[in-house]
Write a structure and sequence with these properties.
The protein is an alpha/beta fold. It has two domains: 9-334, Rossmann fold, CATH 3.40.50; 343-434, 2-Layer Sandwich (GMP Synthetase, Chain A, domain 3), CATH 3.30.300. It is built from 13 helices and 25 strands. It has an eight-stranded mixed β-sheet. β24 (378-387), α12 (391-399) and β25 (410-413) form a beta-alpha-beta unit.
Length: 436
Amino acid sequence: MTVTADVPLVTAADSLADQRRVAGSLAALGLTRGDRLVVSASASPALLAVVLGALRVGVVPVVLDPALPAAERADLVADADPALDVGDDPAQLLGGATAELAPFPLARPMHYTSGTTGRRKGVWSGVLTDDDARALATEEIDLWGFVPTDRHLVLSPLHHSAPLRFAAHTLLAGGEVLLPGPFDAARAAAVISGLRPTTTFCVPTHLQRLLREDVDWSSFRVLAHAGAPCPEPTKRAVVEALPEGAVWEFYGSTEAQFTVCSAADWLAHPGSVGRARPGRSLETDERGQLWCAVPRWARFEYWRAPEKTAAAWRGDLVTVGDLGRVDEDGTVWLDGRREDLVISGGVNVYPAEVEAVLDAHPAVVESAVVGVPDDDWGQRVVAAYVGDVPAEELRAWARERLAPAKRPKSLHPVGELPRTSTGKVRRLDLPGVLGL
């Protein structure tokens, strides 16, 4: 595939000019600090300008998936109670007079959680003080080393927090952003090889598909992935393909960011998610649930859900319900989510542990484990997997490596696993997909 001029390239200077026009339009419409602005558009220079322009005058963009069904979108808009809804046309705010901007975003965008384990929740951080705004932006820019010579490649939808955060901070640091459109492996491979991006954020599904293409990875200094567990064979192949030190993983959520993991740390501790980000620390409670101490500028609440906010916080410690372990050296290991825990015959079974065993089979691309109701055991463990291996062979593999309660009672080959657009497996959908 030939890379042509149809890949939008957003420069920091052009975006800054657009951001000032957005700020002027918002002021003319009467929006002020703390007001919410709904936008639900595909990735574009205008979308980035609206998000950053709003944030830099203290207006909070509520960034929604443009593919939401009308009824669900209406529910979220009603919940967000915005002062303005520009729908799928952010460019309408790019005309007219300009206004001054704060040096850094004065808030975080409001995102609604992806809803893999229940109803979506709005994540609200309010308007920050100038000092906290500077600290928040500086933390992200310093962590990834964004500089004016960076060219960031967007592979994931910008209505999700991580891809939007990477793109926005690249522009804030003076760099450029490539917007090649909805993910297509062949097109992405051509863009990487031809337009030479230096950074990107992606999910393991992107990596699995790009590894099948002819890609020149040599331009990358940072390829960061998150959003879902990365099968060990995929991770090793990516680390080997990219320049030394370029592959990074991080553990976080829509709500907060917790760890970073360099390639060297991962190779020393395969399967881990690294150590706490600067200014943070992690610990577990008696149930094995992970809690993270975060700085003041990283605090949040669940929009109009005080009971959910109270359950998430314990002083300056926050949890998103993930289970895991923290080694003496601070290395963090994930065991899954509390909602995903399978209790079979009174034994706690962590899907991540079973999946790691199945994924280690050389013919398995990836797997997902879920519990389904069982009259005798309460729940029984079942697994779906992608790969060219008979179920009986995989069952024998698991039998040699897992205790009886943890062995899948049934194994189901599938063409692909059901996922959200950020690559997370939709476990709640698995029983229906498998006909259980």
